[in-house]
């Protein structure tokens, strides 16, 4: 089976290489050319455009998009050089990025009228997963999922993929996954701050290591804590700015729409936004108010 890959970024490149190593023929396009030369030496055929990648496939054509969510995905499909020009009925487009599930539903409906199937795939596993096996939640037509099963088997860890529902379900699940991830990251951060501040001289790496061996909260994230804190010099250079936030906010929007209380996720996302604000205007207002009504202490900037 020959697979088209569009987007060889941090995730896409190792995933395309993993496919090639697992015996798939792969043809790939990336906006910037350098990475195409790199993967060519490892058996991935370079394509000049998404359209060129699609044109080099044979039925059933399968194209995997691994680009940022939003207009870029539309451009890769419907743009002048988009994959659609090289596809025919019964071909399949897979979006493995973090698209909003409603965009995926819209795309699937638009493509269905041309007989093209669209699979929305929530990809989890980070950069290590991209190279060594990801976890995939897949939405869209079951028949298209079955056609692509060998591709999912090649990219995922054993048992690490599932057809979870109709169009949008794969990306909806990924929104929930990311919302949970926000809360998990936050609670790990708070716990280690508490250890760090305590009256004991904890070796944080040692504690994380012990917890990772039989502890109830053992996890890959806790293993990453061990790794991050092992290089204390590097850790101490990292500021408390935390990027991202979009998929967490999507999760909260869905929670509100569905009337599901998600206090931990709400707080974790707010904390993320606070870190990005640099300084809290709200806290300054609070300090100013306390000064007004009670003559309480304020500190000047
Ligand atoms: N990083 C993760 O841990 C992770 C995990 C799961 C899912 N995801 C999702 O997977 C997708 C890719 O993530 P990534 O981390 O691989 O991102 P990335 O490293 O930033 O790579 C983005 C890719 O998209 C291409 N691209 C960006 N803007 C484009 C444009 N306007 N036109 C054409 N190509 C464009 C880039 O091309 P250039 O090389 O030319 O810039 C690159 O190939 C995203 O949707 C992301 O949310 C990421």
Protein architecture, described:
- By secondary structure, this protein is α/β, with parallel strands linked by helices.
- It folds into two domains: 2-167, Rossmann fold (3-Layer(aba) Sandwich); 173-294, N-(1-d-carboxylethyl)-l-norvaline Dehydrogenase, domain 2, CATH 1.10.1040.10.
- The chain has helices at residues 12-21, 34-40, 50-55, 71-78, 101-112, 126-132, 142-155, 169-197, 204-211, 220-230, 232-237, 246-257, 263-277, 281-294; strands spanning 2-6, 25-29, 44-46, 62-65, 92-95, 117-124, 134-139, 156-165.
- An eight-stranded mixed β-sheet has the order 3-2-1-4-5-6-7-8, sandwiched between helices.
- Helix 9 (204-211) packs antiparallel against helix 10 (220-230).
- The radius of gyration is 23 Å and the shape is globular.
- Bound molecules: NADP nicotinamide-adenine-dinucleotide phosphate.
- NADP nicotinamide-adenine-dinucleotide phosphate binds next to helix 6.
């Amino acid at each position: 089976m020959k697979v088209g890959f569009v987007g060889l970024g941090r995730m896409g490149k190792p995933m395309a290489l993993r496919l090639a190593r697992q015996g798939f023929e792969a043809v790939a396009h990336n906006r910037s050319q350098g990475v195409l030369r790199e993967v060519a030496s490892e058996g991935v055929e370079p394509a000049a455009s998404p359209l060129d990648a699609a044109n080099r496939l044979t039925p059933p054509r399968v194209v995997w998009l691994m680009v940022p969510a939003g207009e870029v995905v539309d451009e890769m499909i419907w743009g002048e050089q988009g994959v659609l020009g090289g596809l025919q009925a019964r071909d399949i487009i897979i979006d493995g990025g973090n698209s909003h599930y409603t965009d995926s539903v819209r795309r699937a409906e638009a493509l269905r009228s041309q007989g093209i199937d669209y699979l929305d795939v929530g990809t989890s596993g980070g950069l290590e997963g991209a190279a060594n096996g990801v976890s995939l939640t897949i939405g869209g037509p079951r028949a298209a999922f079955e056609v692509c099963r060998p591709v999912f088997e090649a990219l995922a860890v054993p048992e690490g993929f599932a057809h979870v529902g109709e169009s949008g379900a794969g990306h909806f699940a990924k929104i929930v996954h990311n919302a949970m991830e926000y809360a998990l990251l936050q609670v790990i951060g708070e716990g280690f701050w508490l250890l760090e501040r305590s009256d004991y001289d904890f070796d944080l790496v040692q504690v994380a290591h012990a917890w990772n061996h039989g502890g109830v909260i053992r996890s890959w994230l806790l293993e990453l804590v061990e790794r991050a804190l092992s290089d204390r010099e590097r850790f101490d250079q990292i500021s408390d700015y935390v990027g991202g936030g979009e998929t967490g906010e999507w999760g909260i929007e869905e929670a509100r729409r569905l009337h599901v209380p998600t206090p931990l996720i709400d707080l974790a996302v707010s904390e993320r936004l606070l870190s990005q604000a640099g300084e809290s205007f709200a806290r300054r207002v609070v300090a100013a108010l306390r000064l007004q009504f009670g003559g309480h202490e304020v500190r000047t900037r």
